[in-house]
Amino acid sequence: MVFYNKMIKVCGTLLIVSILFGCSSGDNFDPKTAEIVGEEKAELTLPPNVPPPIDRDHATKLVVNMEVTEEEKRLADGVTYTMWTFGGEVPGKFIRAREGDMIEFHLQNHPDNKLPHNIDLHAVNGPGGGAESTFTAPGRETVFTFRALNPGLYVYHCATAPVGMHIANGMYGLILIEPAEGLSEVDQEYYVMQSEFYTEGDYGERGLQPFDMDRAIKEDPEYVVFNGSVGSTTGDNAITSNPGDDVRLFVGNGGPNLTSSFHVIGEIFDRVHYEGGDRIQKNVQTTSVPAGGSAIVEFETEVPGDYILVDHAIFRAFNKGALATLSVSGEEDENIYTGQQLEQVYQPEGGAVQTIPQEKREEPAAQTIEERIERGKSVYSSVCQSCHMKDGSGIEGAFPPVAKSDYLNENPDRGISAIVHGLSGEITVNGETYDGVMPRQNLTNEEVANVTTYLLNSFDNEGGRVTPEDVERVREEGPIE
Ligand code: HEC
Ligand SMILES: [Cu+2]
């Protein structure tokens, strides 16, 4: 304390010293008593966008208008859900304020809504985080004011009973209280928030899906997503940067139940404000973001390519939707990453063995097409399903659909070739472009014939039959472009 007072004195009297020692007006800034200068209307943004950094050097009265809506929205392709939103989207609009600001919060419940709602902002010091003051019936508006005392990244959510259901239906978002001295300058800032959906239908089941309370209580979601839907932030909607840029992600987790193991495939977080607070951890691979919590993640993107944001509880990523894409475009840098330098036959026995031995598995050949389809189905579920999904729909932006696939139906040999030779490079399936890598599958001719026959006769494909002789022929002819 004595030392602190002394520092202020030194800083105040010796400007040069104060610059050297990094003193700033922030050192004796008290958010409780900071003078409120002027008034502003807060600019709110929908995900993945973030309002611009605050360039004020004083506290102000900040007016926030947040409208609650209840509307049917896309959860996945062919799947919709009645979402309850803060500001028209899930997650809700991003709020950016400065430490010391006096925030006048207006909660507006749209007259077409059916239910009352309120808001608990974790950035508030006061009962219910504002929930008690903002209980609002449809067609009504409530107002309360709070002082932003603690800088950090905070979750807000609806806290109207049943609270779990209001959150599960989409009522959460992020509010950033910038420290008085501001955050470091970066090239891009994005808003990414994870959450779960508990639907009556299984993953991918089409139509408007009602909320399933039993699944929610068991914490067994069908969907785990970033920014409100499967594929919200992939393909044309991917977030972007360029090599050499500093990227800052404001990461939130609305839950309602699961903790996220937040990870970006192919990147290391240079700095993490873990739990959205002051402390910085450096050089982090995966950071925990608890339900109702956050993290600020910063890293430089060095090398061009697609970087996939995942919950590294990995079945959530590949089977429940928790995938987003950061697309980095620009110059390669082989000093940092070369890309593949070699791909060749691996011969553990040395040069004497010229081919990889085909493991001979005991299996009598299928006699009928029904038998083929039946056996092909079990190959599919043990080998292919993890990427192409149980219903063959694939994953937007990553794995093409094998359901109703024009690419496959046009020439079934392409399917055989993908399995026995692998497949990479750009292909177009049902109008969407994919540029992924399907590894060569180590299956017998019989198994490939079965699984391809199964594919052709399932998932709305056009039928057909493939024999082990067809597979042998495609093996010999080499990959089909
Ligand atoms: C590790 C993930 C993965 C696995 C496992 C996998 N695939 Fe693929 N598959 C892909 C990717 C990625 C592509 C697209 C490759 C590209 O973009 O060039 C693809 C493409 C295909 C295609 C052509 C495109 C289309 O959608 O019609 C077929 C057919 C296919 N796979 C069938 C299968 C079958 C059958 C199996 C199981 C024996 C299987 N795949 C296993 C990832 C996978
Ligand atoms: Cu609510």
TrEMBL record:
Q: Which residues cross the membrane?
A: none
What does the record give as EC number?
1.7.2.1
> Which gene is the coding source of this polypeptide chain?
nirK
**What name does this protein carry?**
Copper-containing nitrite reductase
Q: Which reaction does it catalyse?
A: nitric oxide + Fe(III)-[cytochrome c] + H2O = Fe(II)-[cytochrome c] + nitrite + 2 H(+)
Query: Where is region (Disordered) located?
Result: 460-481
The record's note on quaternary structure and interaction partners says: Homotrimer.
User: SUPFAM superfamilies in the record, alphabetically?
Assistant: Cupredoxins, Cytochrome c
Homology family: Belongs to the multicopper oxidase family.
Entry-linked InterPro entries: Cu-oxidase-like_N, Cupredoxin, Cyt_c-like_dom, Cyt_c-like_dom_sf, Cytochrome_c-type_DH, NO2-reductase_Cu
NCBIfam families named in the record: Cu_nitrite_red
Q: Which GO terms describe its molecular function?
A: nitrite reductase (NO-forming) activity
Keyword Oxidoreductase found: yes
Q: Does the keyword Iron apply?
A: yes
Q: Which UniProt keywords apply?
A: Copper, Heme, Iron, Metal-binding, Oxidoreductase, Repeat
EC top class, in one word? oxidoreductase
Q: Which cofactor does it need?
A: Cu(+); Cu(2+)
Q: List where Basic and acidic residues composition bias occurs.
A: 467-481
Q: Which domain of life is it from?
A: Bacteria
Residues in Cytochrome c domain copies: 371-459
One Pfam family in the UniProt entry: Cu-oxidase_3
